[in-house]
Design goal:
Elements lengths: L2 H19 L15 E2 L5 H4 L28 E16 L4 E17 L3 H7 L5 E25 L3 E24 L2 E22 L7 E28 L5 E15 L2 E14 L12 E15 L2 E10 L3 E10 L5 E2 L9 E10 L14 E10 L13 E15 L2 E15 L5 E16 L10
Antiparallel strand pairs: 1-4, 2-3, 2-18, 3-4, 4-5, 5-6, 6-7, 7-8, 7-9, 8-11, 9-10, 10-13, 11-12, 12-14, 14-15, 15-16, 16-17, 17-18
């Protein structure tokens, strides 16, 4: 397929993915705070290893968290991820509610700007590599539907409803330059999305009562970026001629981050009162309390830094550890002022391949992965939350190689068992999440041969 047609197909896929991202989500009460629940942009292969990011790179998979990793791609890599999540939300009154949700997790496209096959056939060994990546991922997600009742003495039984939906997304374009074993890269992107939060108050016992509906809508947009670097130290030993040759073992270190970035908001408020006896929720209000549109505002997203280290035995195993911190304590949003807290996350994980070149056992070619993570959430420490929320869990999964037209592609599956919240918070959640990623590799982009 010509490159032009491939790019058109990718653009159509991006538009289709944006539509799917916008579909309704599950019921997450904490998503009414801040910009919503933070969504990991990592691929299924990374999630299965506890979320390794900083030093992780692979010849077949993109790692958009650290743009320096693009420099190690040896073929065009198209990745699509889907997830399903089941959580059991527990309240302080020992009530439990099971909630399902799922959606598309990510869409990546990464490719080297020079086809490695040309180098092999031309017998040219280049030390400088340039690679590029494009990605579309969710950043935050809002989805909740909460209904409660309170009895007020000598007044009435009052019903409260809280509903929210929407989210924000990142469209990123990255470039990476690798010189021998040192790679550096940058992601430039655009943040966009819409968040809707509704509240309702209804006096149940009063005949002919009025209901109050409060609708808040906020659109978010802004430019974002991050940079990263990775370095590989290759272990060598002398051969029979006394020359140093690689042993196949390699130590990789990586770092990535960004400073705080500004974003813009455009918000509206529509507060109304209506009588359900003579009208409906969506009909014209009896009384309009507030109707304001097009309110411009601004905010600040936090700075972030991550670093990590991995040890790899080529085509056999890899282990690594990551640490990430974000300054959510300096978060600002004039349209929805809130106090958030700084966060951190620690990840440990790895993968094992019994026999990469096995020709008679498919099970030996599978990549077996496992990991652990523990981190904090920016929400907590005020209001009804007595302490900062935490997220911890164990992960495991598989990388299933598939040979298509003599090229390696993968189906990556990640499982996550975790707990979100705290023991003392009003709500906590035990959850199980599955992510399935499809990686299609193609080494024919920018492939040109001349025949005499």
């Amino acid at each position: 397929m010509p490159i032009k047609n491939r790019l058109i197909a990718v653009c159509c896929m991006v538009c289709f993915t944006i539509t799917l991202f916008a579909q309704p989500k599950g019921n997450s009460p904490y998503s009414r705070l801040g910009l919503g629940d933070l969504i990991s942009p990592l691929s299924a292969s990374q999630l299965a290893m506890g979320g390794l990011t900083a030093a992780y790179h692979d010849a077949y998979h993109s790692n958009i968290a650290n743009p320096a990793s693009y420099g190690y791609l040896r073929s065009t890599s198209f990745q699509l991820g889907l997830n399903a999540r089941y959580g059991i939300v527990s309240t302080s009154e020992n009530e439990e509610l099971g909630v399902w949700n799922g959606n598309i997790s990510y869409l990546y496209l990464g490719f080297p700007m020079r086809n490695p096959l040309n180098e092999v056939l031309d017998k040219i060994d280049h030390n400088l590599f340039w690679s590029m990546g494009v990605s579309l991922t969710p950043y935050t997600q809002v989805g909740y539907d909460i209904r409660t009742q309170t009895s007020i003495e000598n007044v009435d039984t009052v019903a409260y409803s809280f509903q929210g939906e929407g989210g924000t997304y990142k469209l990123m374009w990255g470039n990476s330059l690798r010189y021998k074993r040192l790679s550096a890269g940058v992601n430039l992107g655009y943040l966009f999305g819409r968040l809707i939060n509704d509240r309702g108050i209804d006096f149940l016992s009063i005949e002919g009562e009025y209901q109050d509906i409060f609708e808040d809508e906020m659109r978010v947009n802004g430019f974002i970026w991050n940079v990263g670097a990775q370095y590989d130290y290759v272990f060598k030993k002398p051969n029979e001629n006394g020359d140093l040759v690689p042993t196949g073992a390699m130590l990789s270190v990586g770092v990535y981050g960004n400073n705080s970035t500004k974003f813009r908001t455009n918000s509206s408020q529509f507060y109304r009162r209506y009588n359900p006896t003579y009208s409906s929720f969506s009909s014209t209000a009896v009384d309009t309390l507030v109707n304001v549109t097009g309110v411009e505002g601004e905010g600040v997203l936090p700075s972030e830094i991550g670093f990590g280290i991995t040890f790899k035995k080529a085509y056999h195993y890899m282990i690594g550890v990551d640490y990430k911190a974000a300054g959510w304590g300096k978060y600002e949003n004039s349209a929805k002022p809130e106090i958030l807290l700084n966060t951190f996350k620690v990840s440990i994980g790895g993968e094992y391949i019994p026999d990469f070149d096995s020709y008679n056992s498919y099970l030996k070619k599978i990549r077996y992965r496992a990991g652990f993570f523990y981190g904090t959430d920016p929400r907590g420490g005020g209001g009804d939350l007595n302490e900062q929320l935490t997220d911890m869990g164990i992960t495991f999964g598989f990388g299933l190689p598939i040979i298509l037209k003599q090229q390696a592609s993968f189906v990556n599956i990640a499982f996550e068992i975790g707990k979100f919240g705290t023991d003392t918070s009003t709500l906590s959640e035990n959850y199980f999440k599955t992510t399935v990623g499809f990686t299609l590799n193609n080494n024919q982009w920018f492939y040109k041969r001349k025949f005499n």
